[in-house]
């Protein structure tokens, strides 16, 4: 696991934390509907590290606020670049449980939007369902403040958390991201396909977009379209791309 001191240096040095950007597309036309920001640590010795090995370290103590600021700044900067190129889609940022337990998080988001002169609706915050279980009172207040600001709320890894259904009854959500595991299994497993169909119907009833994650094959794309799913993300459409490749990729997909 990453050492806090080392991670602090990486944050200060700025160039070790990099954002990869993965398009979300309309399943039918392939046109972009959004972009998810995925952080990586470009470690001098260990290479490109996944958030799994360092996000936990960032979530404790005084590193959280500068990390949040860094990720929001890079994501909104990138979104401003594709907006300037005429691609009118939001940026999605993954939010940790820790952030939702931090009463100052909505103000940090508001500050970032102001710094980048970005309309709040152009920012989607992806929340993993499991965060909803701890200290519900604080989490609900933070989410209510974000909703009030008109930032979009997305449920990440939908279907995998025990609290997923309770969560959507407490918070009005704009998007459900169906977990990759169901997409991977749906062409072989009627049960997995039933979960995807259920998510599509639930999304429609809640007035929330449904995005299928981890689409890797044309067969999965066809199966999703047959179930009425309209948006997706995955290697079949595009891998996560570095910042300098995202605008041309979006213009090409549009
Ligand atoms: O891209 P990859 O599979 O390595 O991502 C692993 C996990 O890291 C995903 O669940 C994703 O939501 C999470 N993640 C990616 N970027 C960020 C980030 O900026 N902040 C937080 N908290 N999690 C992130
Ligand atoms: O938990 P979250 O949905 O934020 O994590 C997204 C993760 O899924 C990222 O690490 C991203 O790199 C990865 N990912 C995106 N598309 C695909 C795909 O088509 N296949 C696989 N295996 N992983 C994917
Ligand atoms: Mn995500
Ligand atoms: Na996910």
UniProtKB/TrEMBL annotation:
It comes from the Bacteria. Residues 1-254 form the EAL domain. Signal peptide: none annotated. This is Diguanylate cyclase.
